[in-house]
Amino acid sequence: MSKIKVSGVLKAVVKVRGGVKVDHHKDTAELEVVRMPVPKKVVLPMQQHIGAPCTPTVKVGDTVAVGQVIGDSDKFVSAPIHASVSGKVTAIGNVTLPNGAVVQGVTIESDGEMRLYEGIEPPKADTLEDFLKAVRASGLVGLGGAGFPTHVKLNVPKDKNVDTLVINAAECEPYITVDYRECMENSWDILSGIHIVKDMLGIKNVVIAVENNKPKAFEMLKKIADSDNMDGDAIKIMALESKYPQGAEKMMVQSATGRKVPPGKLPADVGCVVMNVASVAFLARYIKTGKPLVSRSLTVAGSAIKEPKNIRVPLGTNIGEIIDFCGGFCEEPAKIIAGGPMMGLSIIGTDLPVSKSNNAILALAKGDAAIRKETDCIRCGRCAAACPMSLMPTLIERSMKAGNVEALQKAGIMVCMECGSCSYSCPAKKPLVQTMKAAKAYLREAGAKK
Amino acid sequence: MTELKNKLTVSASPHVRSKATTQGIMLDVIIALCPALIASGVLFGLRAIAVSAVCVGVCVISEYVARKVMKRSNTIADLSAVVTGLLLAFNLPSGVPLWIAAIGSVAAIVIIKQFFGGIGQNFINPALGARIILLTSFPSEMAKWEAPLSWKTQVVTTASPLASMYNESKQFTTENLPSLTDMLLGNRAGCLGEVCAAALILGGLYLIIRKVISPVIPLTFIGTVGVFMAIKSGFDMTFVLYQLLSGGLLLGAIFMATDYTTSPISFKGKIIYGIGCGLIASLIRCFGNLPEGVSFAIVLMNILVPHIENLTTPKPFGSVKEKKEKKVKEDKAS
Question: Last residue of some domain: A289, A324, A359?
Answer without folding.
Answer: A289
